[in-house]
């Protein structure tokens, strides 16, 4: 079964098939749009997890408001991060990596969440890879030497 595509989308799909680094860029870019969007929106519903439980007790003590309110702020940041990666992955990927670094620090100071912290280290590495790939494949920031 063949999908009908326009000539330009067909050429882009063909280029992606021939260039594994470009395919990796798009896979990471789409992932870092979809995942933070879902996770950010879930901060308002708590369907996937009871998010305030992920805050280290020392952070809860520092908050001037309820932990649930902190998670609403986190949710907004994650949705903004998703939109930013969709629009400008070259700089947004590094912002996401820094955000993940903060999450990792929080989780490492709270026993029982080391496995989640380790998973987030993997996500941080993937965000950094997206940032590096964006130097070549983000059309909004491509230099003449980087075009192929």
In short:
By secondary structure, the chain is mainly α. It has six helices and no strands. The chain crosses the membrane at residues 21-42, 62-84, 91-110, 116-133.
Low-confidence stretches: 1-5
SSE sequence, one letter per element: HHHHHH
Percent of sequence in beta strands = under 5%
Rg, alpha carbons: 18 Å
Helix and strand content put the structural class at mainly alpha
- Helical fraction equals over 70%
Total strand count, please?
0
Distance between the termini: 31 Å
Shape: elongated
Tally of separate domains:
1
Major beta-sheet overview: none
- Count of helix runs: 6
Oligomer: single chain
Q: Could you explain how this protein is built, in words?
A:
- The chain is mainly alpha-helical and 148 residues long.
- It has one domain (18-142).
- Helix content is 72%, strand content 0%.
- The chain has 6 helices and no strands.
- The longest helix is centred in the C-terminal third of the chain and has 24 residues, at 114-137.
- It starts with 6 loop residues before the first helix and ends in an 11-residue tail after the last helix.
- The relative contact order is 0.14.
């Amino acid at each position: 079964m063949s999908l009908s595509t326009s000539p330009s989308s067909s050429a882009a799909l063909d280029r992606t098939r021939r260039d594994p680094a470009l395919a990796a860029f798009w896979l990471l870019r789409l992932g870092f749009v979809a995942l933070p969007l879902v996770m950010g929106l879930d901060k308002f519903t708590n369907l996937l997890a009871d998010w305030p439980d992920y805050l280290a007790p020392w952070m809860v003590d520092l908050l001037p408001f309820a932990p649930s309110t902190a998670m609403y702020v986190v949710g907004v940041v994650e949705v903004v991060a998703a939109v930013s990666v969709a629009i400008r992955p070259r700089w947004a990927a590094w912002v996401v990596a820094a955000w993940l670094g903060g999450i990792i620090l929080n989780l490492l100071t709270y026993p029982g969440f080391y496995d989640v912290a380790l998973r987030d280290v993997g996500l941080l590495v993937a965000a950094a890879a997206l940032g590096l790939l964006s130097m070549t494949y983000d059309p909004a920031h491509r230099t003449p030497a980087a075009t192929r």
